[in-house]
Amino acid sequence: MSDLSKIPVTVITGFLGAGKTTLIRHLMQNPQGKRLAVLVNEFGTVGVDGEILKGCADENCPEENIVELANGCICCTVAEDFIPTIEALLALPKKPDHILIETSGLALPKPLLKAFDWPAIRSLITVDGVITLADAEAVAEGRFAGELTEAQIAAGEHDTPLGEVFEDQLACADIVLLTKADLAGEAGIEAARKVIAFEAEEKGRALPVLAISEGVVDPRVILGLEKAAEDDLAARPSHHDGAEGHEHDDFDSVVIGLPEQESSETLVAAIRRLARENKALRVKGYVAVKGKPMRLLVQAVGERVRHQFDKPWSGARAGHLVVIAEKGDIDEAAIRAVLGA
C-alpha cells in the first residue's frame, strides 16, 4: 500500500507504436475529477507525442502541465532532466493530483523506477503502478521474437534487442493492456495472451491482461493501484539487473525534412516501403500536402500506417518525419531516397 500523502505517478510503457499517447489522451478526457500532469519522453530529437497531447489540453490538464523531454531516455538523465521536471510539476501553482509518465517506446522501465528513490523526490511522489501496453497483433505475429545475427550468437546473446525491450517492459508491469484488439481479432488476442502468460510465468509473475481498442479503458482499472512499485523492484526482473547502467545503442533515429507532398497516398506507399526494405520500426511526424491547408499527422508501425489531417499549419509548412530502426538498419541516404527527400 502506498503512502497516501505522496502524489501518485503512473508509468505508461510499451513498445514503439503500442498506443501510449492514445491511452493518455483518453485518460485526459476522463480524469475522474483529478487534475493531471503528463511527462512525455521521446527517443528522437523531434517530439510528436507531446504536441498531440497539448492539443488535448483542458482545465483538468492544462498545457503547462504537459512536459516533453526529447532525444533520450529520462532514466539515463535522472539528475539533468527527470528530477528537475518532476520538481517543476510539483511546484505548479495548482499541484497535480496524479502524474502520468509516457516513456519512450524503447525505454527499460526498471531504471526509471529506481529514480523514484532519489532523495529530492522520494518523499513527494510514489509509483502508483506500471501499465505496459502491448500491440496485440504484433505480439501474436511474433514480431518481438526476431532472429539473432551471427555476431550476437557468437557473443552468447540469447535475446534480440527487440525481445529484450519487450520482456523488460512486461517484467515491470502491474497490468498489461493488449492494444489494437480490433485489428488483432479474437484469435490474435488469444495468441497474444498466451505469449504474455508465458513471459510472465518465466519471470515468476502473474499479470492481469486486458484487451482494449483506441485507448479506451475505465481509468479506475489502471489508476489508483497503490502499488508503490519503487519498493517492489526485486519482483520486477530485468535483463540489465546488476549492470552499472543501460545503453540504447541497439536503436537509432533520424529526422527527415520533407517538402510538400503531391498526395498522402504516395507518402504512405513510401513509408510502407521503408518498413519492407529498410526495416523501419516506427515512422511519425507531420507533413504538408499540396492544396491542403491542414498538416498531415503520420504515425506508422512497420507497414501499418495511420494518417489524418489534424490542424492548420502555423508558420512555415515544414514537414518532417522521425524514422526509428535498429542501429545497423539506419541508412539516412537510403531513407531519404525512399521518401524523395
Helix content bin: 25-40%
Strand content: 15-25%
Question: What is the CATH superfamily label of the largest domain?
Answer: P-loop containing nucleotide triphosphate hydrolases
> Separation of termini?
53 Å
The name of the CATH topology of the largest domain is Rossmann fold
Number of domains: 2
Which runs of at least 5 residues are low in confidence (pLDDT < 50)? none
Structural class: alpha/beta
Give the neighbour order of strands across the main sheet. 3-2-4-1-5-6-7
Order of helices and strands: EHEHEHEHEHHHEHEHEHEEEEH
CATH class descriptor of the largest domain: Alpha Beta
Give the quaternary arrangement of the chains.
single chain
- β-strand number: 12
CATH-derived architecture of the largest domain? 3-Layer(aba) Sandwich
Q: How large, in whole angstroms, is the Cα Rg?
A: 20 Å
How would you describe this structure to a colleague?
The protein is an alpha/beta fold. The protein has eleven helices and twelve strands. The strands form two sheets. It has a seven-stranded parallel β-sheet, sandwiched between helices. Strands 8-12-9-10-11 form a five-stranded antiparallel β-sheet, covered by helices on one side. α2 links the parallel β2 and β3. The longest helix is centred in the middle third of the chain and has 22 residues.
Question: What are the main properties of this structure?
Answer:
single chain, 341 residues, alpha/beta, Rossmann fold, 5-stranded antiparallel beta sheet, 12 strands, globular
